[in-house]
């Protein structure tokens, strides 16, 4: 089955499921849901298309902004909330803002680890950490097979990573590497990497050939492969990769709580998650979406995944960032 045909099938099936839910429990009158979204325009547009097809009576007003800014706005509006739903942030970040979120257990079946405590948040997508390699810049170096290969002095100045103090994805990478290799591993990595202020600079600079390799997220690298850059390779490290799930949540005291819950169910559905994945390559939290058939990416079950305690990652953040600051300062 071709990718377009499979995607159409998933969307039609998901639309039928959403429609059946609406008939049995939702009013026919028009509803409005205010969505605070930190996702890019491609993701938002893909979602709105599915909502329009599946629930034409549900109007979605989208307020766009950065993750931190939107969460702080929700916090500031706590006495008189204006948002119904927030989409999306890493689980540790959502935990930090738990006081302004409302529990809701989606009617869509998701893996247990994709649902927050008491349904406080719902998984939207899962970031898989990879090595993004530009094979035109290898210059005689072997293609890295794992994280430890980047410790080789031959890679000095040829690997780029985001600043974990500013980037949640970069922090997930550094935290995972710290769990795997300890302080000694971070010291070896710090001697070779170039730290950039924004995580987006990582994949952009590797794609442009400024660096041979970057530590980044699967979807970021896959976008260039899908765009036709044959020199870009995704390496799933032999030692194992780290996952960084992101979630969405109903806002506590939401002005339109039923519409918020209805929209969240649609967002978690096969149809919406398949459409968003096809538009952005963000791996869905809904594991019924076949990422291999749509984009040729490996199934999570076929990857070596190193378990990361998201609560511990949040709790240890200051300590791990202090260690990283020390080892990078020493490496200068």
UniProtKB/TrEMBL annotation:
SUPFAM superfamilies noted in UniProt: Periplasmic binding protein-like II
Assigned keywords, A-Z: Iron, Metal-binding, Plasmid, Signal
GO MF entry, a single one: metal ion binding
Superkingdom, taxonomy of origin: Bacteria
Binding site residues for Fe cation: 219
Family matches, as InterPro entries: Ferric-bd
Pfam families with a match to the protein in the record: SBP_bac_6
Residues making up the signal peptide according to the UniProt record: 1-30
Matching PANTHER family: SLL0237 PROTEIN (PTHR30006:SF24), THIAMINE-BINDING PERIPLASMIC PROTEIN-RELATED (PTHR30006)
Protein name: ABC superfamily ATP binding cassette transporter, binding protein
